[in-house]
């Protein structure tokens, strides 16, 4: 659980240093969970509407919209911080393999270009899966917890 929450704790230094594969992939799992759970809740709420009386549908939809808005406002705040932490841990992960963080920015820009966005996502995932450089590089020394987890992800 500690590696999963580490990017939130490192937001004060955002993109300085290095992050190992364990820290990145554990946070990636949390990132996915924070996106899947709201979708399940959202579709669960709207799935129950189909059994309502069509005459009263407008009132039910208005009430459901208010409930949905109240539920999702705090979630959007959490997701905003999570996106910032995901960008930071991705840049630190690139630092771990000896690549500048500007590659992340370039890949993010390419995501908006049709047909190339799929290739950019594959390149991104491959880069995140590469092992870090052994020993210190120009972005600093590897973290101790990353070296101890190296046997798990090698």
From TrEMBL:
The chain crosses the membrane at residues 24-46, 66-89, 101-127. It holds the Pfam family DUF805. InterPro entries: DUF805. It comes from the Bacteria. Keywords: Membrane, Transmembrane, Transmembrane helix. This is DUF805 domain-containing protein. It comes from Aurantiacibacter gilvus.
